[in-house]
Amino acid sequence: MPDIFTKEKRSEIMSLIKSKNTKPEIAFRKLISSYFYPLGYRYRINYKHAFGRPDVVFVSLKLAIFIDGSFWHGFDFENRKHKLPKVYWLEKIQKNIERDIKVNKNLKKAGWKVIRIWEHELKKRPDKVLSVINRYVVKLTNDPKLERDPKRGDRSAKGVTKTNTNKAI
To answer: Which of 11, 129, 149, 150 is the most exposed place for a label (fewest CB within 10 A)?
Structure first.
């Protein structure tokens, strides 16, 4: 199915889509700020000194976090691609997926830990997202003040269950 817009009109429409400070990114920053700021941890946004300009970076920990839109970054792409107009969207989303893989590899090569969070997971389960981030920070710092369950909000030295953090969120 061909695009219903001219190339110029499609370009105009696409130029209106924000790439920074999207609603999911702002929601994520509020979530982690309320948890990590009181503990003394700071982050940078759209950090230009890390390959791929991660959405959020804990520089001292070399932890890069991306908030990926479910549509734009191809969540469940194999099952959904047959519904997309082949001419434009298949190519666009496939390139985004390939770029994400390249960014991950380059950051890992440079010694960074990379976390990718799906927009829909952030909306549905922010507590799970916060737990995963917390587990990474605990692992990278061994900071006992982080050994708490962010879902419950308790500040005891119990809490975070150490599980496999290589899972995608």
So the answer is: 11
